[in-house]
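Objective 1.3, modelling of assemblies. Example input:
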Amino acid sequence: MIVVMNHCADKKDIQAVISKLEKTGFQIHLSEGVERTIIGAIGDKTRLGSMSLEAMPGVEKVVPILAPFKLASRNFREENTVVCVGDIEVGGDAIHVMAGPCAVESREQLMESALRVKEAGATILRGGAFKPRTSPYSFQGLEEKGLEMLAEAREATGLKIVTEVMDPRTLPLVAQYADILQIGTRNMQNFFLLKEVAAMDKPVLLKRGISATIEEWLMAAEYIIAGGNSQIILCERGIRSFETYTRNTLDLTAIPVLKHLTHLPVIVDPSHAIGKWRFVLPMARAAVAAGADGLIIEVHPNPSEALCDGPQSLTPENFRHLMDEVRQVSKIMNRKMPDA
Amino acid sequence: MIVVMNHCADKKDIQAVISKLEKTGFQIHLSEGVERTIIGAIGDKTRLGSMSLEAMPGVEKVVPILAPFKLASRNFREENTVVCVGDIEVGGDAIHVMAGPCAVESREQLMESALRVKEAGATILRGGAFKPRTSPYSFQGLEEKGLEMLAEAREATGLKIVTEVMDPRTLPLVAQYADILQIGTRNMQNFFLLKEVAAMDKPVLLKRGISATIEEWLMAAEYIIAGGNSQIILCERGIRSFETYTRNTLDLTAIPVLKHLTHLPVIVDPSHAIGKWRFVLPMARAAVAAGADGLIIEVHPNPSEALCDGPQSLTPENFRHLMDEVRQVSKIMNRKMPDA
Amino acid sequence: MIVVMNHCADKKDIQAVISKLEKTGFQIHLSEGVERTIIGAIGDKTRLGSMSLEAMPGVEKVVPILAPFKLASRNFREENTVVCVGDIEVGGDAIHVMAGPCAVESREQLMESALRVKEAGATILRGGAFKPRTSPYSFQGLEEKGLEMLAEAREATGLKIVTEVMDPRTLPLVAQYADILQIGTRNMQNFFLLKEVAAMDKPVLLKRGISATIEEWLMAAEYIIAGGNSQIILCERGIRSFETYTRNTLDLTAIPVLKHLTHLPVIVDPSHAIGKWRFVLPMARAAVAAGADGLIIEVHPNPSEALCDGPQSLTPENFRHLMDEVRQVSKIMNRKMPDA
Amino acid sequence: MIVVMNHCADKKDIQAVISKLEKTGFQIHLSEGVERTIIGAIGDKTRLGSMSLEAMPGVEKVVPILAPFKLASRNFREENTVVCVGDIEVGGDAIHVMAGPCAVESREQLMESALRVKEAGATILRGGAFKPRTSPYSFQGLEEKGLEMLAEAREATGLKIVTEVMDPRTLPLVAQYADILQIGTRNMQNFFLLKEVAAMDKPVLLKRGISATIEEWLMAAEYIIAGGNSQIILCERGIRSFETYTRNTLDLTAIPVLKHLTHLPVIVDPSHAIGKWRFVLPMARAAVAAGADGLIIEVHPNPSEALCDGPQSLTPENFRHLMDEVRQVSKIMNRKMPDA
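Predicted structure (tokens):
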């Protein structure tokens, strides 16, 4: 950590900062320049959280040197984490695709979706039973009935299940049914929920917050790992920018950046990022070309009848086409993909 | 609602949209232009949520005409909502200032803060007992002990208490102590938590999500009103932009915009928005000049020892100065303010 | 165009809007709903520019229905525009890669760069002679000497030349040397410069403004086409978002969106978007997988000695590796690429 | 400047960075921590521009310590710069308001505007003769005829004239008529134009770029001062964020931040920032309460007939009301304001 003193800081101010840092166990390097004095502090960064150096007289700014995440960092663990979902390995040799409807609406809708995405090569079924909706007047999900239908579809197809958990109180219920617990974009910094999934022995799909920096996202992962669960799959799903033609701005560069910073696997959700089905296929291809370990795609047997997010859902035919294209890209990337 | 068909939509596509809308109870106005056909649909907007018109063949885009919030809207209720916190009226004639430390750290720190902000004219004491922190290694709050200290400070000073609730499971506990329940920026779209505070008979301070549009913010308020609680104070606390010199970008224009769109009172939190104490005073003045009903300000007896957010906390002396300045602006605005 | 009247608009307000629109030659469709009156106006959109309907009494908002660009639109011209740069066709069957240093620094540096990128399969040499620099103290380019070196490198290698023009006064000079005139991100809305390049008989590389929406970008292209030059290559180069780990946020979804909205070819500049050479290769692969017609890549024989943007420049070895990878992706996309 | 080496950097990498810095004349302070080696470099920051340290092997990041602007900095010049426009002092004791139509449309429109804003207490007349317009089909300004009308209005009223210059070629013409040369938001980084106005002996109104950080904005001012002209008025006019209810997000916090960082005067343009006349008055009040030295406000005798930006223009009556309110705020700020 570097503490930059402002140009009117006097000896007393500088000494006060040094004393405070030394008391907390930091080792000090002092550089006195013509215009500024700079104090380097070397020591355990986890102590920084509870120090308010910038409020001390004469301090201009505090510049952290090390990333604030530790357990999630590639420095801490060099080899890739492979997340096991039963016999499926996310982050291993193969690209895995999760697919299905935004929301579970009925047995027929879900079963039809499950069969069709399975046929096309998906290995994991997505579907929301609890739905976070901007409007209180929108469909909020079938809740436990939806979870039961997901379990039934798993039974029938062998697909694993990923579904969202929104509330610590319903986590035990969701965990009974889900193979992967999804933390949605609005809950990426719901720290109590993070602490609860950290205590579970189940893989977690951690979506990026809609305006989360990569560092904040890795700090959310750090909460889960620090709580005991390192079976985390990161999911890029678009960030909020000024551009309104697409629903959000898909930040594919986050994929190689994450591969550099962390050992955790990364997948991409182009459907939610873009909000228009027409552009999902090329961006799925691009995501895998950028190094993603998998995809999560919305598929609905009849998008125009969907109770949620129809405009971004693929028909089963379009999804099959997407899988064919992604399969070709995965070969170039030296990744396997289950046959259709 | 306006449905714009794309230029290759044929009669069949147009008829399908019309049939779907008519079946849902909308009345139709059709405009066939040279380049586009446009379908106007008049009816109950709350039905829109569960229709995926944009996924229908030939549909280019759907343009909503009415705002999606209803109960929170100024059209629904013309006069201002005044939120009563005991004998204090937020949104009434007077400007109210909430002040205190970011986090409750100790009896001494809190009591000292409470006495000093009371002296300067604050009427409500702020202080976090449960703290949302980006890092799992940062101080997470004193929890119930913190709540007890807040109650003690209320006892000693007569100040009302505002404190954050982060989890539906601890809501009953927090509600035992708090006069106002604060929903923080990270929980503005924690819909289960919104539904729970909606069921309480207690005022809610609803902070704007860090990347929430004004419309999304009012939809969060709509959740709470629709659930039965219209005692809501909106709090602008800065949004995320590309500018990094300040922690966030304080969007003061949101104040007159909200006054136009909704009947709910609006206060401003310059401390969190800016992150640097030096700029809090002028922006507090500006907030009241823009029409805010109050302020929430971080004050710490010794900012450089603060366990949380010291750099943005005012000393009691600086806070007293701020109150003097704000008092002058409130006179111009024809608003009262409690004497110091 | 749809004019939404607010709920207190009276008959007189509505009639005034209708009269004004009819006088301008629009045909009117009136929809009187319970809560709102809506006025649809059908006619020539280019008249809208000079009307201030939103300032009329009773008007709540004006919603445009058609895109504001016309000549740049895919509706206007269905087939792809192919931009001919001598015998090279950008936007045709082949993927073309432009490569070279950020700035021309010396004959040696440029010639070495040119030979190495040519060897690896690039067909166009990039290099700035006039450099837009945030700081007045940074290297501003070699100006005419730099242009002469570019011409010399073209002579020696057969590569075409793309270089930036920043000022209408030096446009004739730059145009003497360049095969493609680059309009940089800071000049995307320098409308006088756009009008001047519109009058030239030379291809234009139009970079996206750092905070330009796709619509604004296409309006900049519209300026050039309306002025008589439709030989335009669009270049996505990252937009400004809150994320600071990368220099900008590369918006690859813009590629399929542009392919849908316009007939103009689209290339991608991952080097400037990202600012770190390490992530350029995967994003080049992703850009082509998303449907880009080409790439522009910074290559420097010795990045750590570069006078400009060294951190994002590839070494010639890394560039050769990038080209090998991109060549594989182009096969999947059924695009040709010149052999190395 | 601090160079942070990555954790696999070896002795050779570290030595190479040190040698390079020492050769450029920097003095070195080395801190070898357990996890990272950090190299502090003290010396003339203007040499940094041409060094690509981040491209050297083993370098993780380079952290600048001093701001990159020098002549524009409050450290360089402690007292406020007062910009003299004839006998008017911007940045002195008095608040000055510039007002008038977005574009000069006719003699009648301009003269009527000039008389009315003068009556209400404005001291400077604004009006565009050259207009930057997103669409090539929108009204582009009356050019020299517009300038003549501005001169005539000055003659008749005694108001000073501020008008935009967009092109180095028309600068001599504009400078013949204008008292203040306006650099618009789209030209804040048009560096050739900056260099030209730097060579003029005339005050410059430098608007913030729509997505410019405060630092980039001050670097644009640095270009002008470094070129010889320090008569610069900075103008905050809203930045681009995700919020779409207002045209841009007015960043009033920039005012006290600029007062801290620079000696240059700062004014605010709420009309362009917000885009809706209804919210201009409260934000004008807030701007002065935040410490602005002045305002620039759009006023049109008949906003709904305006050829440009009618929706954000005030009627003369509304402007008079605004001036009354601003006058009250200026008293609190201990600033004078010309009587109406």
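Residues 316-332 of chain B form the longest helix (17 residues).
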